[in-house]
Amino acid sequence: MASKLFKCVILGAPGSGKGTISSRIVKNFNLEHISSGDKLRLNIKNNTELGIQAKKYISQGELVPDSIMVRFILNEIQKLNHRSWLLDGFPRTVAQAKELWGSHKLNLVINLNVPFEVIIERVKGRWLHLPSGRVYNIDFNAPKVPGKDDITGEPLVQREDDKPEVVMKRLQNYDKITKPMVDFYKEVGIFHDFKGNTSDEIWPKVLDCLKTNCPSETATAQSI
Ligand code: G5P
Ligand code: MG
């Protein structure tokens, strides 16, 4: 039973389109989407103990310590109760990747490879529906009504860590701390790199890769 589970991770720099591509993946495949950033932002909004701790790091563009993140995400995976999943934003350090691998052997790692100059431009226009994690962009996928979520009509917000100086810090940390994980997954042999300037260019290649690697029972009618 457990061997039929599909376990997948999406990697990429801040603003590379992990949330955007993940939402397309879950429309086409029966995978539970766990976005570490979305979950942390909800904890901050709800003023939980985790949220209070995480806010100190996130607002500065720093990573939340490994020990906190590993405990949090492994617990979120356990709550899925044997359903297939897609992790977005975790792991983010070699230490996190090794801890995850110790508990769960992944089937696939998707890496979004988008130039930094493209990313810096696009995060300026990002708007977010905090409760659901739905993400918009005034230049790319604008909401139907400006400032309102398409589904609920609730207000959209901008992320505190999308301020230009914090984005630069996040990109530097990505290069220094997160990118070395690529070598770890290349050695394991499950790493797939997708290069492009837009999510529309990258998406068909990700879809093909998932159709090849994902067991048929995980696909929804849309992807067949
Ligand atoms: P997050 O929330 O995981 P990041 O920095 O990894 O944050 P982010 O910013 O959420 O990643 P993304 O999901 O890769 O980016 O990108 P996205 O939101 O889909 O797209 C970015 C924008 O571009 C959107 O407005 C989208 O509409 C638009 N867009 C997409 N495609 C295109 C396109 O083709 N063209 C155009 N024009 N626009 C497009 O983590 C936040 C913080 O939480 C902590 C850290 O502090 C982190 O900085 N954290 C962790 N700390 C330690 N360990 C972990 N595992 C942690 N996870 C989170
Ligand atoms: Mg995201």
TrEMBL record:
It is an enzyme of class 2 (transferase). Its main location: mitochondrion. One of its GO terms (biological process) is AMP metabolic process. Residues 35-64 are annotated as: NMPbind. It comes from the Eukaryota. Coiled coil: none annotated. AMP binds at residues 36, 41, 62-64, 89-92, 96, 159, 170. It is found in: Mitochondrion matrix. Keywords: GTP-binding, Kinase, Mitochondrion, Nucleotide-binding, Transferase. The keyword Transcription does not apply. InterPro entries: Adenyl_kin_sub, Adenylat/UMP-CMP_kin, Adenylat_kinase_CS, Adenylate_kinase_lid-dom, AK3/Ak4_mitochondrial, P-loop_NTPase. GTP binds at residues 15-20, 126, 135-136, 199. Its EC number is 2.7.4.10. Consists of three domains, a large central CORE domain and two small peripheral domains, NMPbind and LID, which undergo movements during catalysis. The LID domain closes over the site of phosphoryl transfer upon GTP binding. Assembling and dissambling the active center during each catalytic cycle provides an effective means to prevent GTP hydrolysis. This is GTP:AMP phosphotransferase, mitochondrial. It comes from Ignelater luminosus.
